[in-house]
Amino acid sequence: RLSNGNYELGVHIADVSYYVREGSPLDNEAMERGTSVYLVDRVIPMLPHKLSNGICSLNPNVDRLTLSCVMEFDPNGKQVDYEIFKSVIRSKIQMTYKKVNSILEDNVVPEGYEQYENSLRLMAELASILRKFKTKRGYIDFGVEEAKILVDENCKPTDVVLRERGVGENLIEDFMIAANECVATHVNYMSLPFVYRIHEVPKEEKIRSFLGFIGTLGYQVYLQTDTGLQSIGFTTNPYYTYQATTSGTYTFVIKSAYSIFKSNMSNGITLSTYVTVQNTPPTPPIDPGTPEIPTT
User: Fold this and answer.
1) Which of 136, 183, 200, 268 has its Cβ near the most Cβ atoms within 10 Å?
2) Measured between alpha carbons, how far is 240 from 176 in angstroms, rounded to an integer?
3) Model-level pTM?
4) In sequence order, which residues have a C-beta less than 8 Å from that of residue 54 and are 6 or more positions away?
5) Alpha helices in the chain (DSSP H)
6) Residues contacting residue 222 through CB under 8 Å, at least 6 positions apart
């Protein structure tokens, strides 16, 4: 935590490019493999073990070459400054998610973690702020459950269980996303060629199909405007999508008072999800009815 009340977050990634030079045999083999392959009980790495599990692994108590992205966030989660640079770091401890979650979720500090407790709690505090800020920007946490296959000593499957995902796992995800966005923004402003992971603007027919589908689940769709929410009719009519009269970007607010998705909602609680489309709105058909906007 900085003296001005802001948070400073450093994300450090092993500098693999120092060891794998473009056009080298290592680079050509990695290009051929494309990615590491994760099997049930083992990993087939894209790079040799001496790199992936050795000199390029951020093991504790040894110097490692890294690329660092150090960011400053205000108390609301807005990034106000950053710096990207080459670095050398020495990790102090190799933690496990189970033990980190023991601290952050159960208030039980495992042996050897005592000196890191305050730092971990501060990290969890920042991660929570960043997640809330992402949600305000339209982030949707789908909360997809992931299966984990258990095997015996002969690699024969014995059971399938849900993979646990706690505060520690979410914390790392939030910090990695923050670093990815920071680097992508930095490169974009430099006007350099870069590989981005993006989601294209959805086609109008897909939006119509989506609105029709969620209508069968009891959802009502409204158009968010500067003056509030504007009803746009029942979503059971997929052709009645919105009542905008000008081109631009529109935000649909999808509401429901039904308890149909586990703990995401309960009776009387409104769930809002934001979908943005950008196109020229068609002439809307006859309004099938304008229900009142729920107040609960």
Assistant:
1) 183
2) 40
3) 0.70
4) none
5) 25-33, 49, 97-106, 117-136, 167-189, 204-215
6) 229, 230, 231, 232, 252, 253, 254, 255, 293
Q: Please state, as a whole number, how many other Cβ atoms lie within 10 Å of the Cβ of residue 100.
A: 22
CB contact set of 29 (below 8 Å; sequence gap of 6+): none
DSSP state of 248: E
pLDDT one digit per residue (tens) for the chain, 296 residues: 999 999 999 999 999 999 999 999 999 999 999 999 988 888 899 999 999 989 999 999 999 999 999 999 999 999 999 999 999 999 999 999 999 999 999 999 999 999 999 999 999 999 999 999 988 887 777 777 888 899 998 889 999 998 888 999 999 999 999 999 999 999 999 988 988 877 777 777 887 788 788 778 777 666 655 666 555 544 434 333 343 444 444 455 555 444 333 323 333 223 333 343 333 333 333 344 444 444 44
Give dist(CA 15, CA 86) in Å, integer: 8
Q: How many residues does the chain have?
A: 296
- 198 CB neighbour count, 10 Å cutoff: 6
Q: Which of 262, 213, 258, 263 is nearest to 235 (CA)?
A: 213
Q: List for the chain the helix, strand, coil content (%; round to 5).
A: 30, 25, 45
CA 69/CA 11 separation, integer angstroms: 5
